[in-house]
Specification:
This protein is about 35% helix and about 25% strand. By secondary structure, it is an alpha/beta fold. It has 2 domains: about 160 residues, 3-Layer(aba) Sandwich (Rossmann fold); about 70 residues, no CATH class. The strands form 2 sheets. Strands 6-7-8-3-9-10 form a 6-stranded mixed sheet, sandwiched between helices. Strands 2-1-4-5 form a 4-stranded antiparallel sheet, covered by helices on one side. Helix 3 packs across helix 4 and helix 3 packs parallel to helix 5. The chain is globular and about 50 Å long.
Length: about 250
């Protein structure tokens, strides 16, 4: 049985005055998929994430979430429907402990009558943060801060998790550990994952499919091995005609 389409971006465009940030961007993400969204700096990745999450309105096009047009829904409505995200710069409540950071989201997003405390305990255990529960964000590593943000993003109800450069700034070992936990989250819960990065090699071992943005539009969509050898992608990243690389 073919998996349902979790997220569909159709002909999305965004203009800032005379600047074209996105034009005619279209792709689908199926339920349970782990997909990478990649592109050089300035390609439009962050703008697209803002539009998908509801923080920015598109100039044209449509965003659908599990078959429902959510283009005009505000961010909090999409979050309650299960469309969740992290941010490129970790945004934790510095005056709250690790568990309190996650509890804020759990209390807001769980349906009435559900045990938000049990939800927090479960997420802490899943992300191997139980030993850090009472620590303040300033007392833990960047890698653990990123885990807390993921935990806060998925607390309550999550169907699609969008990760905005969650691996940046980490050591190789820390990145490998976080990748393992993200893949386990996908495998164990079925949460669909979309990962934004700008380094192709970082995502190659993590995802089975890459969508590449360049100059505000999609230039490739396929398996990492195919994308890495696509002449158009090579030119976008290296500024060199593919023929010159042979």
């Amino acid at each position: 049985m073919t998996a349902a389409v979790a997220l569909e971006v159709s002909n999305v465009a965004r203009h800032f005055g005379g600047l074209v940030a996105l034009r005619d961007v279209s792709f689908k993400v199926r339920e349970g998929e782990v997909m990478g969204l990649i592109g050089p700096n300035g390609a439009g990745k962050s703008t697209l994430f803002e539009i998908i999450s509801g923080n920015l309105a598109p100039s044209g096009g449509q965003v659908s979430f599990f078959g429902r047009d959510c283009t005009t829904d505000p961010a909090h409505v999409r979050r309650r429907a299960g469309l969740c995200r992290t941010f490129q710069k970790v945004r934790l409540f510095e005056s709250m402990s690790v568990s309190e950071n996650i509890a804020v989201s759990a209390r807001q997003c769980l349906p009435p009558g559900h045990d938000w405390r049990a939800e927090v305990v479960s997420i802490l255990a899943r992300l191997r943060l139980s030993g850090q529960a009472d620590r303040m964000p300033s007392e833990i590593t960047l890698a653990d801060r990123k885990k807390v943000e993921i935990g806060r993003a998925i607390a309550g109800f999550c169907r699609v998790l969008m990760l905005d450069e969650s691996l940046s700034g980490l050591t190789h070992e820390e990145a490998e550990e976080l990748i393992g936990e993200i893949l386990a989250l996908n495998r164990d819960t079925g949460i669909t994952v979309i990962v934004v990065e700008h380094v192709l090699s970082v995502l190659a071992a993590m995802v089975k499919r890459l969508v590449v943005l360049h100059n505000a539009t999609v230039i490739a969509d396929g398996a990492p091995g195919e994308v890495a050898h696509d002449p158009v992608v090579i030119e976008a990243y290296l500024g060199t005609k593919a023929n010159a690389l042979r």
